[in-house]
């Protein structure tokens, strides 16, 4: 049932994302805002945020345990489906990326920037001083977002159930939405711990789903780079697994100057295709685990 529940939730979430529906980020922000008041000088404290995430996760675990003890485990699957649909998803990306690609094709880089600037991390918006830098920041943000909103949830759901998946997604929400900015670096460090293993598994999957030879020559170092952060792991692995210089705009512009107008769309399409194929690999692997009786 783990495979069935996840597959149904994933397909439902993709439909919702395509229609730009049901973003749960406002719910996270509202919940944190109401309970985040701290005394002066204690702005960096993280215990309250972690408690707000860990308590409902623990309650979910207790609920599943109770249903299992009563022989009603099947009653928990609709709840898991609903929670997975809420935990996954990255609505709001489709229209800006389409507008960005169209502006890039016209050569209007200023318009392209305005279409996607709100999607970028606030601390990196000022670094997009050239089309190359802007596109690489956008590509990195897109990959990390999809990883944390889909692959991270899938990994921890299969490994630890809905309890751990909820906690992992809650930590990501704390990092992004906790009102006290001083506490966010601590949440970001915890997020990196939770991201460490699934990001390297996705890096390996990029080699399977993409250009294995290119990944072997450039991307496999991500498996041994213990200190590499999530964005570095994904960018290095994807750069090796993608062909056509999809993540090397400078080199592409030198080799194919006549096709530069189409680069923005081609690069984003290549990234999204690689991520989609990688999720298919994960689903197939989960199916094999189910067949083998592991899950």
UniProtKB/TrEMBL annotation:
The keyword Phosphoprotein does not apply. This is Regulatory signaling modulator protein AmpE. The gene is ampE. The chain crosses the membrane at residues 49-67, 74-93, 150-168, 274-294. The keyword Transmembrane applies. It comes from Marinobacter azerbaijanicus. Keywords: Membrane, Transmembrane, Transmembrane helix.
